[in-house]
Amino acid sequence: MGLLRVFEDDDYQAEYSLLVLNDPAVDWPDEEPEIPHYRDRGDTPNGTFAGSGAGWIYADAPGLDGHLVRLELHDEPPPAGELHFDEALETPYRSSSGTISLASVTSGPGDQVDLELGDAEWFRVRIALRREDLGERPGFHPGFRSHWLLQFWPDTAVAAPVWLARSEAVSSSRLSQDLEAVLRWTPQLPLETSIPDLAERLLVSEADVRDGLTTAEQTGLLHFESKEPLRLTLGPEVSSCR
Q1: pLDDT at 1 over 70
Q2: What are the tens digits of pLDDT across the range 30-49?
Q3: How far is 92 from 79, CA to CA, in rounded Å?
């Protein structure tokens, strides 16, 4: 069938330079789910561009820009080849209420429902951003307009995030959160992978991956169970004392 529902907001105000989407009625079961790991830790890391979890999506959104946000629900993955954006990634998303709302950081998700997602609990979402340079206009300050497209579709085969487009260099501190996001959405840990595989998934250089892993280990986001082969798991390494 393809596209099922659409919501569009052409005057979104990005608070604290963040695009925020929340589940307006989060009601999780008491037990800690297998994924995403750290569901109830309370943080919402958005890494180098965007991040997702159980009931939340956060993305970098320059606060001085104008923002046009389009949310779409599909019944199957829409073609990725049609996207022409500066930044883009696909990531899992877990829904509690079957609805989602554009929200703000300080006032919370609010009561409004901006997009009905339906009865499915597990989704994949493609988050894409294109910046339009408005240039010099008589009577206006030069500036930019941010065009957002978030496409949701049901997907019970939860797979770790993958980056589709990047336009800016990455810092190791922000990339370390992307690396942790990959682990948070990996059902069975440790993750056995390689530097080239991570570079391809995150759309960065192998040198960037090494720097990001070093920072992530130093800050306790993850640790190495082994380096040959590369096996990664969440959290700091726990030393045993005798």
Answers
A1: no
A2: 665 678 999 888 899 999 99
A3: 17
What whole-number distance in Å separates Cα of residue 9 and Cα of residue 150?
12
Which tokens sit at 122? Answer: 């597990």
- Counting Cβ atoms within 10 Å, is residue 78 exposed (0-12), middle (13-18) or buried (19+)? middle
- In the sheet with 115-116, reading across from the earlier edge strand, the strands are 50-52, 56-60, 18-22, 99-103, 115-116
Give the model confidence (pLDDT) of 81-124 as tens digits.
Answer: 666 899 999 999 999 899 999 987 765 555 688 999 999 999 99
Task: Please enumerate in sequence order all residues whose Cβ is within 8 A of that of 213, keeping only pairs 6 or more positions apart, or say none.
Answer: 176, 179, 222, 224, 232
Q: Poorest-confidence range of 58-72, 153-167, 181-195?
A: 58-72
> Are the C-beta atoms of residues 110 and 40 closer than 8 Å to each other?
no
Sequence-ordered list of residues with C-beta below 8 angstroms from that of 82, at least 6 positions apart, any chain? none
pTM: 0.91
Contact 206, 199 (CB under 8 A): yes
